[in-house]
Amino acid sequence: MAMETRLPKSLKFLKMNTAELQKQFIHEKETVKVALSMLNEIPESLTLFVLNDDKQLLGTLTDGDVRRGFLSGLTLQSSVHEFMFRQFRFIRKKGYDLNDIVKFREKRIKLIPLLDEQNRVIKIIDLNKQRSMLPLDVVIMAGGRGERLRPLTDMVPKPLLKIGDKPILEHNIDRLIDFGLDDFHIAVKYLGEQIETYFGDGSNKSINIDYIRENAPMGTIGAISLIEGFSSEHVLIINSDILTNIDYEDFYKNFIEEDAAMAVASIPYKVNMPFAVLETSGSRILSFSEKPVYTHYTNAGIYIVKRELLRMIPEGQHYHATELMDKVISQGQKIIHFPILGYWMDIGRLEDFEKAQQEIKHIKF
């Protein structure tokens, strides 16, 4: 049986999200002998984060820091404070952008402390275990009745129907977490208490979940008007009943590079014409295409929106995403689409649900 790793007494005040995270923290007054024992328990990262009594991050400690300390005359009984590296890299919760994360990856820095304004650790971002860290709030629309999926939805809300080994909504949440998203708002109505019971406040996944409860159907995005505020400048909105492996970092990066007010994920849809198509002017044929293929783009139900645009949604009223799109276009603001080149399926019908059960075995998330 594997022995449980015990934290030094000086760290008992910490209340971190997981036992795995706790293993990476050490108090500045601990001896380097204790630190070496702890480093031996985390072979993947080989990094400890040094805290003071106020839980503020003071520095980092690696095997290399320990060796350099010994070479300078320090001993096993010397404090961690004397060994630690003080010029460590970090980001703040409200003060980073995607370029910061890209630079960390380019420099092959995999562990990034996320700090609050008092330099206390919120979490450690491990780029070995997650794809990115996107500065977005998330709204998931999960209030629909799922009429076309009856009788499956008579007793279970559609977002909790299982595809493979977990519910549709959990597939979406887990993928969003993989891109560093941790502030979630979930709009619920039909059997919404089941969704709230299943996910709780999100702490079991180290995220924050707030619920918006619709008293009446409010359309595809009307419930957003009930949210008091967002912490990020941009908001990702997603329908809960889709299954996709969209690259959210590419989606967000394209939105930023295009300097758009709103981005809509789209699905390429090809139409094969069975006959030659003529281009005409009056009765005259100018050219023709033999059995051409036309590509159209449909709405995938995933959006990134500038926070200020959400003020256009009328409070407490039925309102659709397409109405917001119309308003953005009518105001001359820039709205773009981002084609999903990977997997996407709307789990709206029984045949879609059955198809997804087979395809989930082969989708690479």
Percent range for helical residues? Answer: 10-25%
Evaluate the radius of gyration: 25 Å
Provide the residue-averaged pLDDT: 87
Task: Work out the strand percent.
Answer: 25-35%
The top-level CATH class of the largest domain is Alpha Beta
Query: What coarse outline follows from CA principal-axis ratios?
Result: elongated
Please tally the helical runs, counting DSSP H or I stretches of 4 or more residues: 10
CATH fold-level label of the largest domain = Spore Coat Polysaccharide Biosynthesis Protein SpsA, Chain A
The low-confidence runs, each spanning 5 or more residues with pLDDT under 50, are 1-17
| Element-by-element helix/strand order | HEHEEHHEHEEEEEHEHEEEHEEEEHEEH
**CATH architecture field of the largest domain:** Alpha-Beta Complex
Q: CATH superfamily name of the largest domain?
A: Spore Coat Polysaccharide Biosynthesis Protein SpsA, Chain A
